[in-house]
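Aim 2, interim progress: modelling of the nicotinamide-adenine-dinucleotide-bound target.
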Amino acid sequence: MNLKIGVIKGDGIGPEIVTEAMKVLDKVAEVYGHQIQYTQLLMGGASIDVHGVPLTEETIEKAKASDAVLMGSIGGDAKTSPWYQLEPSKRPEAGLLKIRKELRLFANLRPAVLYEELKEACPLKEEITQGGFDMMIMRELTGGLYFGARSTEEVDGLLTARDTLTYNEAEIRRIAKRGFEIAKKRRKKVTSVDKANVLDSSRLWRKIVEEVAKGYPEVTLEHMLVDNCAMQLVKDPRQFDVILTENMFGDILSDEASMVTGSIGMLASASLNESKFGLYEPSGGSAPDIAGKGIANPIATILSAAMMLRFSFDLDREADAVEAAVAKVLKAGYRTKDILSDGKVQVGTGEMGDRICSYIEK
Ligand code: NAD
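Predicted structure of the complex, ligand included:
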């Protein structure tokens, strides 16, 4: 297969961790007989340095012409970087918001996986997490409260602020379909999270999700109220497979779920549009405090590349091989500094990438 991948290395540790993910993709291509064509794209601070703006039309067009985009993190140290002397619309993060909009990325996927080998990093009691857990939070990204009309005005002499939470049935249907499709590739369970006991938008959410579920009889659907879900994530995270939810609930729950895994350097993410196209990036930031030291953990970016293989290219065997290689490296005791514990072997960013490559097999 020919894979056309746009690459935004980004700022801070971005170039270091993306280089390792590309190394792993190249190894997958070699072992499984694929061809990869990379197009390097500038965005964020790296683009400001060259073009004076965080995102150019050229980058947008080239990203759209790719099958998928692999991205490192964007941004610098807000206190010391000259990028933050610029007006907000010219700062690195503005590029991120704009590219998500231009590429119409409406579904955000964040896996929260607790590897048995990293269980010490998990803040939950061992009896709750025994055997690890593996869930996927699927969050609607372009609707809801963050995009509704808002205002602040004086009403009867009191300052009054208003935000609106709007979803139409088409927006709910497209994300629900994506959620069920992804559950089909996993343990075939969707937990749809809403606040249907209070909100009209949630009642519509629930109705449409139930309609969509009829097309996926092999997938089990359950509904859960968001307040209960927040509790269940720390009480019994093993019960979840795919959590499907709207924008704000997903924002909060995905951060909660990632914290229970305990390690930011392990957290992959993907944002998808209506076609197979996706933008794949680690959940963490550009970590300017450790940039250039060769100690950043590349695993989140490597696992994001595995998601790309699975969701943009339908190369499930290849994605499984990458995920298995990560698990084997952890089992063999190799750790970057952020996940190091007693008795384990510390390796740098490049060696972690090399070791993962060495475990990629058919
Ligand atoms: P951060 O995630 O960059 O760093 C938080 C802490 O986690 C730091 O101690 C860092 O060293 C550590 N860390 C993060 N990723 C790591 C990795 N792969 N390996 C080892 N340690 C890692 O968050 P921050 O410091 O709040 O933000 C730094 C910059 O990143 C800011 O400019 C922020 O706006 C930007 N940011 C970008 C994205 C993105 O590109 N999607 C997301 C979050 C933050």
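The chain has a mean pLDDT of 95. The first strand starts at residue 2 and ends at 8.
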